[in-house]
Amino acid sequence: MARQNARTASTADQQGEASVSKSAVTRSRILDAAARVLSENGYAGLRLTDVAAAADLQAPAIYYYFPSREDLIEEVMWSGIADMRVHVTSVLDDLPDGTPALDRLLIAAEAHLRHELEISDYTTASIRNAGQVPQSIRRRQILEEERYGEIWRRLVNDVAREGLLRPELDLYIGQMLILGALNWAVEWWNPRRGSVEAVVANAQSIIRHGLVVHPS
User: Fold this and answer.
1) Domains delineated in the chain
2) I want to staple 133 with a disulfide (CB 3.0 to 4.6 A). Which of 64, 137, 178, 180 is the partner?
3) Can you tell me the distance from the alpha carbon of 119 to that of 121, in angstroms, rounded to the nearest whole number?
4) Has residue 215 got a pLDDT over 80?
5) How far is residue 211's CA from residue 61's CA, in Å, rounded to a whole number?
6) Are 27 and 142 in contact (CB under 8 A)?
7) CA–CA gap between residue 39 and residue 5 (Å, rounded)
8) Mean pLDDT of 193-216
């Protein structure tokens, strides 16, 4: 499935504006190509020649925009989580006032899955390579993960405040298990094994029946 990454879309939206330079468009092409190659080949397998080929450039041109291979990868890794946070926040902000806490949690799970599986190579690359890249590359990504995790902390806490969370569950552990399961989908999901809709429905069912108190 062809993906229009957040940065490509942002640049495309501005194509008619004189303020958008050829340099900015090229930089976005390099980042999009790097995200795709990193998501498919991993940190150790990312070669700048492959990124250049995917971006339809000569490899030395990349150094005009990024001082090193590590700087390019760092930007992709940070963008993957930052774009995810913006996407999920936007989806939640668009919900009507008074949307029940459980519905907000289930909708956030769908937004997360669709972003990593359908929308963004950046997010796929960031999740898949979080344990592979050096900590020096991960620093900015980790800060962004903490900001994103705060969204999920509030979502789970809101469900608990409405008296819906199973009393034996730890809020933090529950939050981390949800995020871990959602993130792991990038490793095993294949369209031949089921649609994204099926993945979303199963994830929502697990959350609904695993976290929520049901009348006996």
Assistant:
1) 6-211 (1.10.357.10)
2) 137
3) 7
4) no
5) 51
6) no
7) 13
8) 90
Q: In terms of Cα–Cα distance, which of 37, 155, 165 is closest to 85? A: 155
Backbone phi and psi for residue 135, each to the nearest 5 degrees, phi listed first: -60, -30
CA distance 63 to 27: 11
Residue 145: pLDDT above 60? yes
Residue 162 · residue 209 · CB < 8 Å: no
In angstroms, the CA 78 to CA 122 distance is 9
CA distance 139 to 119: 24
18 token code pair? 């004189």
Q: How far is CA 42 from CA 37, 95, 130, in A?
A: 7, 36, 10
Q: What is the DSSP letter of 117?
A: I
Q: Report residue 14's pLDDT band, with 50, 70 and 90 as the boundaries.
A: very low
**Global pTM value:** 0.87
Which residues touch 52 (CB under 8 Å, ≥6 apart)? 33, 58, 59, 61, 62
pLDDT at residue 172, as a whole number = 94
Place of tokens 């990124």: 51
Q: How far apart are CA 106 and CA 204, in angstroms?
A: 6
Measured in whole angstroms, how far is the alpha carbon of residue 86 from the centre of its chain?
9
